[in-house]
Specification:
By secondary structure, this protein is mainly β. Helices cover about 5% and strands about 25% of the residues. The two termini are about 15 Å apart.
Length: about 240
């Protein structure tokens, strides 16, 4: 699985931290498809409200800022995201040309386009086309932990960029989970105070999405809170 190397400068509100590496246990040795999960109530793909997939500007790698008529920028610890789409029908060979729509909450646990405080923003949402290694990359911020959910990212995989304008074309919807030790480090920094409290009330084993099994959805982490974190996940489909 390819991993993004380096990321952008610290976002506003980022606090320093010590270097760390945490390795998830996701594996493609058995080439099993990633579990399908709920898109949740804030997908922005037209299934329960606005459809950002048809907006000019959604195909982008840096999802920290809004685009179009919106101009907000999400603050938080810098995070580079790398997802590698693999073809289970071909022994988990890279699936180049596939498209991934990724979305997440901000450091306050709010979702653009839905949460009242940022309903006019569209940041932390983006689409990318997989390269020859099957990999897509996004520059983002580490998401917050909101009440009742373990820290996570949402994503949908589509057969192509052209198909990634209609949610009916998606191949799979799933989620990436973050390792507990990294979450604790991030949430000890300024701006994530509520996330630190919420994290203490939930675990991977009690989360309503991951409690039935999260091994293949646990991201592999590297980097540091101070200079930016990187997370990678293999996505066999």
């Amino acid at each position: 699985m390819a991993t993004l190397v380096g990321c952008a400068a610290d976002s506003p509100g980022q606090a320093s931290g010590s270097a760390t590496t945490s390795t998830g246990s996701a594996s493609t040795a058995d080439c099993e498809a990633i579990p399908a999960e709920t898109a949740g109530p804030y997908p922005g793909n037209g299934t329960n409200g606005p459809n950002i997939l048809r907006e000019s500007g959604i195909v982008r790698s840096d999802i920290r800022g809004s685009f179009g008529s919106a101009s907000g920028v999400a603050a938080g610890v810098a995070l580079a995201i790398s997802l590698t789409v693999l073809d289970t029908s071909a022994g988990c060979a890279p699936l180049s040309g596939a498209a991934v729509y990724l979305w997440q909450c901000d450091r306050n646990g709010d979702y653009s386009m839905y949460s009242p405080s940022i309903a006019t923003e569209n940041y932390l949402r983006g689409v990318q086309e997989a390269d020859a290694s099957g990999t897509v990359g996004f520059s983002s911020v580490f998401p917050g932990c909101y009440s009742g959910r373990w820290p996570h990212l949402h994503f949908e995989v589509y057969p192509s960029l052209d198909a990634a304008t209609d949610s009916a074309n998606q191949i799979v919807t799933s989620q990436l989970a973050f390792p507990p030790d990294i979450c604790a480090q991030v949430y000890a920094t300024a701006g994530y105070e509520q996330s630190e409290l919420n994290l203490a009330r939930v675990s991977l084993d009690t989360d309503n999405v991951f409690r039935d099994g999260w091994t293949s959805q646990l991201g592999t982490m590297s980097g540091s809170v101070a200079s930016g974190l990187q997370v990678g996940l293999a996505v066999p489909i």
